[in-house]
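Question (not urgent): is this output format expected?
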Amino acid sequence: MLNQVNEILKNDGVIAYVTDTVWGLGCLPSSEKAVRRIYEIKHRDGKKPLILMSDEFYNLFDYLKQPIEKEAQKLIKKYFPGALTLVLEKSDKTPDYITSSLPTVGVRIPDNKTFANICRNIEGRVLATTSANLSGEPPALTYEEAVKYIGGKVDLVIPDYGYTAKGRASTVAGFKDGETVIYRQGEILI
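Got this back:
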């Protein structure tokens, strides 16, 4: 199946998969066509950016402006992998079509073995991603819900192999003047 996933993604495909929080919908960050499909599938407002996720933080370095601020580094060490999305300054490698032309990008390392295994077997080991649901609707929490909500619109819904989503969204945090700012309170309390 993992060879199939890589082929789908390399051909501008969109996949759905389990994470530690909710089910995700993703594609390769280099595929503008697939990113546009994600917006169409979800009926998502074009002003709402996608985030980047991987199995290891070092896979995301090239997408981020260096150096990463000290407060962010502390949170990365403490909470990654886990239910935390950090909004950081993006590098020139991060396409505007992922970030809705914002100067920042959200990054996350889910704590889920099925998701990590997917990343380890795809080109670049990074996915541009969002939750698997229609905008305004609750996110999918199970394989069955993912199939029901978006199964007919994506190229593949990957089984969870027993590693389920907990159902609570990630905390989204950023930084302003060296201070941590919470944009969405989720599972992790900072």
